[in-house]
């Protein structure tokens, strides 16, 4: 764990890199992060600025929650959260949530968010499980463990700095016991921890202290799983801790423990949307070893299997679009073409599989392998050989930014443009020479794959009635310009700015709600309209995500269930600009300042001073804080141009630089202290629509 000084710096840098809005709700953990289907459970949520939350949002109507604020004195909070230990100011607040789960809600993971006066939080995962929660008692030891009287149960706890948690249970000889941990799945990334997640270690020992089973991961998954047959009638102890003994509330876990169903493999693991698949299932404590399934949704899916004990763990299943022929486990040398795909495994000791494809001169070959992304153990390498046997292309790992929970992207995409017509050989091998049914994969031939992925964040956009908010679109890869954003689902009266994306791959878009807009929540969709070769246009979905930081630096796109706008209560003032935001403001290197007219629409009787600053820090423009005094409704502000930082653009005639800008207006609120630090909170913070400033000669 880094020092508290580094934690504070990381948070500060994050704030400087993002627009300054009213205090954002940030969820850090849920404890316990789940409950049994058909029951009501009380949980604690920890985070920042969540203590005024009023509503709980789930992506399933059968799960409902009520927020109950926690009354905690300032002295108690200071004692609980000392900055000289591993705690974080990002977990300073906490609330109680009472959650009711209908009996017909399928077991699995669901998005939970909190809503408050200043917006909607990020999402965390809440599990609906087959088994009841067993809450740990803190400060357990080997001699005084948490005693679990009946199984199965879901053991719920969190590790403290240097801490180890102990649970004891009775077992009989021959029992197939499963201990399956969910930890990283609950909090995928922790911004101020190295490694950037809770890394659990799990052990089971007998009454004499002899180790019966051990796990520190499950295949390539961080969360460990123990599957073991108990050797005798005895009292057993399950032990969990972090690999390097870190801990705090967001190092929390759920352990499904007992003689419960657990699927270790399902074959085949690939299908076609809408078509039945007969599967062979492997695992423990299962009622059946076969299943017939039909999945309608294309792409990555999750399956569970029900037994008389409960619902199994979730396993991934990938489905192809309708119309694609899927060839399961073909013979060596089978043909791969555009109309079909191959589902296979490295099942022989040869540890390599070969397939044929026909290439045409100067027509690109694109072969995609899906394996690790669908739960396979394969770390695949693909090679392409020409008709003489010479290797003309070889590829190992290809990053897929849509897989935000992955930090090791093991699936390759092979691209090659042949010089002549010929029959070529595509080879598949595991980098570490592994083989077996678990080393399965899907091969598919394409004319081309999309050259980019587009993401919109946050996945919940809060706009005050009559006010303005924004979201950001990130483009991973290359997209041909001009490119424009299309927003579908906005009600009448809502307006937007900055829908035309320039050269940047990170683009801000503002949404302004009309005066009198209803306080409600509604889904929207964002699409990207872009140019394709030949003068045609195409559209691509922009995926809703939450951005999560890993270990101070890396950020990941975590898919959300939907993209929604939440209209909140109006602020007592609104901000706009005295010019058309669709027209660029231009300046030259000879200019020292750029005048910007800011308009303030105040509610009757609201005369608080409003401080104007830049919503984004830049190296080119600065703005000393300017205050609109009571009664002032407009102001000409002057952005100062840093001419030294413009020298690199001197003499340029094409691709002149531009900057997206917004002005933030803040009404200061109460001052709070955390440790030795003082925070000036915002009572209100509003922004103007985005506009563009462009350099000209």
Walk me through this protein's architecture.
- The relative contact order is 0.10.
- The chain has six domains: 4-129, Sandwich (Immunoglobulin-like); 133-258, Jelly Rolls (Sandwich); 262-320, no CATH class; 325-446, Sandwich (Jelly Rolls); 452-568, Immunoglobulin-like (Sandwich); 573-695, Immunoglobulins (Immunoglobulin-like), CATH 2.60.40.
- Strand 45 and strand 46 (554-559) form a beta hairpin.
- The model is unreliable at 1-22 (pLDDT under 50).
- The protein is built from two helices and 58 strands.
- With 697 residues, the protein is mostly beta strands.
Short description:
By secondary structure, this protein is mainly β. It is 3% helix and 49% strand.
Largest sheet: 6 strands, mixed
What's the N-to-C terminus distance? 50 Å
For CATH, the homologous superfamily of the largest domain is named as Immunoglobulins
Strand order of the largest sheet: 39-41-37-35-45-46
What proportion of the residues is helical, as a percent range?
under 10%
**Sequence stretches where pLDDT stays below 50 over 5 or more residues:** 1-22
* SS elements, strand count: 58
Average pLDDT works out at 91
Supply the number of structural domains.
6
Could you tell me the strand content as a percent range? over 45%
Shape: globular
Provide the CATH top-level class of the largest domain. Answer: Mainly Beta
């Amino acid at each position: 764990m880094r020092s508290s000084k580094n934690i504070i710096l990381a948070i500060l840098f994050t704030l400087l890199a993002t627009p300054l809005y009213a205090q954002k709700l940030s969820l850090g953990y849920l404890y316990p992060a789940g409950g049994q289907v058909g029951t009501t459970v009380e949980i604690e949520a920890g985070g920042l600025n969540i203590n005024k939350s009023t509503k709980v949002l789930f992506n399933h109507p059968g799960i409902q929650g009520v927020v109950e604020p926690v009354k905690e004195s300032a002295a108690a909070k200071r004692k609980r959260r000392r900055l000289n230990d591993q705690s974080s100011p990002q977990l300073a607040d906490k609330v109680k949530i009472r959650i009711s789960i209908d009996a017909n809600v399928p077991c699995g993971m669901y998005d939970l968010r909190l809503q408050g006066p200043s917006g909607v939080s990020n999402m965390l995962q809440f599990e609906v499980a087959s088994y009841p929660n067993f809450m740990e008692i803190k400060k357990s030891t080997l001699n005084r463990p948490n005693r679990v009287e009946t199984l199965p149960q879901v053991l719920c706890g969190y590790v403290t700095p240097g801490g180890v948690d102990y649970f004891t249970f009775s077992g009989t000889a021959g029992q197939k016991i499963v201990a399956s941990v969910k930890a990283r799945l609950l909090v995928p990334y922790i911004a101020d921890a190295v490694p950037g997640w809770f890394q659990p270690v799990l052990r089971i020992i007998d009454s004499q202290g002899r180790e019966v089973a051990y796990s520190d991961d499950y295949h390539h998954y961080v969360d460990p799983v123990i599957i073991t047959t108990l050797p005798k009638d005895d009292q057993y102890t399950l032990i969990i801790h972090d690999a390097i003994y870190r801990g705090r509330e967001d190092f929390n876990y759920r352990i499904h423990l007992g003689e419960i169903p657990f699927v270790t493999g399902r074959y085949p693991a690939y299908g076609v949307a809408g078509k039945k698949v007969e599967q062979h299932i492997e695992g423990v404590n299962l009622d059946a070893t076969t299943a017939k399934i039909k999945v309608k949704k294309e792409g990555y899916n999750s399956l569970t299997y029900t037994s008389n004990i409960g619902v199994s763990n979730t396993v991934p299943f990938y489905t192809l679009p309708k119309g694609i022929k899927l060839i399961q486990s073909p013979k060596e040398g089978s043909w791969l073409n555009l109309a079909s795909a191959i589902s296979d495994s490295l099942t022989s000791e040869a540890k390599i599989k070969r397939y044929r494809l026909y290439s045409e001169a100067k027509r690109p070959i694109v072969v995609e392998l899906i394996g690790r992304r669908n739960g396979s153990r394969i770390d695949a390498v693909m090679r392409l050989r020409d008709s003489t046997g010479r290797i003309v292309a070889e590829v190992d790992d290809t990053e897929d930014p849509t897989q935000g929970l992955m930090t090791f992207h093991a699936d390759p995409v092979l691209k090659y443009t042949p010089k002549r017509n010929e029959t070529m050989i595509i080879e598949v091998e595991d980098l570490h020479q592994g083989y077996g049914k678990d080393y399965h994969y899907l091969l598919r031939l394409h004319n081309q794959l999309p050259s980019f992925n587009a993401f919109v964040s946050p996945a919940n956009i809060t706009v005050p009635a009559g006010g303005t908010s924004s979201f950001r679109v990130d483009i991973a890869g290359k997209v041909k310009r001009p490119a424009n954003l299309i927003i579908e689902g906005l009600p009448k009266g809502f307006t937007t700015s900055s829908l035309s994306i320039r050269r940047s791959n990170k683009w801000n878009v503002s949404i302004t709600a009309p005066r009198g807009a209803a306080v409600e929540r509604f889904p929207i969709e964002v699409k990207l309209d872009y140019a394709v070769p030949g003068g045609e246009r195409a559209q691509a979905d922009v995926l809703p995500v939450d951005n999560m930081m890993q270990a101070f630096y890396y950020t990941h796109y975590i898919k959300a269930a939907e993209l929604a706008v939440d209209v909140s209560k109006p602020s007592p003032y609104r901000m706009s600009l005295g010019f058309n935001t669709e027209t660029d403001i231009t300046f030259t290197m000879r200019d020292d300042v750029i005048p910007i007219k800011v308009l303030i629409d105040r509610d009757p009787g609201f005369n608080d001073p409003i401080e104007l600053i830049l919503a984004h820090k830049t190296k080119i423009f600065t703005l000393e804080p300017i205050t609109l005094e009571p009664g002032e409704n407009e102001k000409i502000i002057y952005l100062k141009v840093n001419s030294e930082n413009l020298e690199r653009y001197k003499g340029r005639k094409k691709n002149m630089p531009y900057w997206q800008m917004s002005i933030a207006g803040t009404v200061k609120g109460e001052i709070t202290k955390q440790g030795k630090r003082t925070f000036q909170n915002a009572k209100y913070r509003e922004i103007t629509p985005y506009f563009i400033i462009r350099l000209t000669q």
